[in-house]
Fold this sequence. Notes:
alpha+beta, 2 helices
Amino acid sequence: MxxxxxxxxxxxxxxxxxxxxxxxxxxxxxxxxxCFVKHQLLHLLELDDREGITYAIQYYAESKANYNxxxxxxxxxxxxxxxxxxxxxxxxxxxxxxxxx
Length: 101
């Protein structure tokens, strides 16, 4: 099992709207690609939230092939969708992790 982890810092001015959009539209569309079997949304604690709130969204892929399919076929489109919706009000980076145990 692989975890595609996306960490996002969200500007306070859009936080509530962004979170609703993320949960109602964005995550369901990503899961709808069939590349991931589940997700987890986490709020990072013990950070300075004065400039924005930080979340991690973890998407679980059953294989490297499924993750690679997402990256090659869908990732760029989802990044463009986020940029079109929120401009420079979000900053994110992604990592890939393998479940060991």
